[in-house]
Design brief:
The complex is a heterodimer. In chain A, helix 2 packs across helix 4 and helix 4 packs antiparallel against helix 5. Chain A has a single domain, classed as Up-down Bundle (3 helical TM bundles of succinate and fumarate reductases), CATH 1.20.1300.10. Chain A has five helices and no strands. Chain B is mostly helical. Chain B has a single domain, classed as 3 helical TM bundles of succinate and fumarate reductases, CATH 1.20.1300.10. Chain B contains five helices and no strands. In chain B, helix 1 packs across helix 5 and helix 4 runs antiparallel to helix 5. The radius of gyration of chain B is 19 Å and the shape is elongated. Chain B starts with 16 loop residues before the first helix and ends with a helix. The chains are: A mainly alpha, B mainly alpha. At the A-B interface, helix 2, helix 3, helix 4 and helix 5 of A face helix 1, helix 2, helix 3, helix 4 and helix 5 of B.
Chain lengths: 135, 126
């Protein structure tokens, strides 16, 4: 392996074979977002109102609860990939880049966990007295 | 970072609609990461915390700045969605002919605005 140019140092090592992974995940999650955010958009339109009783009752049903949980996981992963691309394009200094990637990873993990926990809490909560015999 | 000269990639090109679509895709996508996702968590968090917390969320969301943010988020989503679908078409190698490309570049942000208007009309009147 040469000590000369950057090209000389990598020549002959072959392709990494994993460079397209993020690119493909961005597309996969984009299709997921199309379905899941589409579901949320249509639900917002179709729900009679967005009051606390209506929305929490809606999230007690399995289909909306699972769709919203998938939405949180999918949308946060898609955003993580998009922010990593932004950092790759505009943050060039190694230390700053590391700090930004760390922050994005923490925000992704924290946001996903918080969103899923909140959804679980609503979905598994007991129906309040106001709902009467609905349970 | 190596101190080599950069090619003047931003300053020498005549602006075309495809360039606007490209930068809007980035602005709306990363903008949603910074604004829409915190709002989504605020909404879910207030739902999980109970009726009083949800009432305070509703109070913020239905204020004038709440509507500005929510309309902005919905526009960012529909704009990002329509330019994202354009990305999919171009990913399979279609739509690179200069007139086709220009036509869909002009159509993309207009479709985003129309879908935003249709969404709020549906929310308001349906």
């Amino acid at each position: 392996m040469g000590e000369g140019t950057e090209l000389g140092r990598v020549r002959g090592l072959g392709a990494a074979h994993e460079g397209e992974e993020g690119w493909m995940q961005q597309r996969m999650t984009a299709v997921g977002n199309l379905l899941l955010v589409g579901f949320l958009v249509i639900s917002i339109i179709l729900l009679p109102d967005l009051s606390y009783p209506t929305v929490s009752e809606w999230l007690r049903h399995p289909l909306p609860a699972v769709a919203m949980a998938l939405l949180v996981a999918n949308v946060f992963w898609h955003a993580r990939l998009g922010l990593r691309e932004l950092i790759g394009d505009y943050v060039h200094e190694d230390g700053n880049k590391f700090a930004c990637l760390l922050l994005v990873n923490f925000a992704w993990a924290g946001g996903t966990a918080f969103g899923l926990f909140c959804l679980a809490r609503v979905a598994f909560s007991a129906v309040t007295a106001a709902a009467g015999g609905a349970a | 970072m190596a101190t080599r000269p950069l090619s003047p990639h931003l300053s020498i090109w005549k602006w075309g609609p495809h360039m606007l679509v490209s930068i809007l895709h980035r602005i709306t996508g990363d903008g949603m990461a910074f604004v829409a996702l915190p709002v989504l968590l605020y909404w879910l968090g207030s739902l999980a915390a109970g009726p009083e917390a949800y009432a305070s969320f509703e109070h913020q969301a239905t204020s004038w700045y709440g509507y500005v943010i929510l309309v902005g988020i919905s526009w960012a989503f529909f704009n990002h969605m329509s330019s994202g679908i354009r990305h999919f078409v171009m990913d399979v190698g279609a739509g690179y002919e200069i007139h086709t490309n220009k036509r869909w570049s002009v159509a993309t942000p207009i479709i985003g605005i129309l879908l935003t208007a249709a969404f709020w009309a549906a929310v308001t009147w349906y």
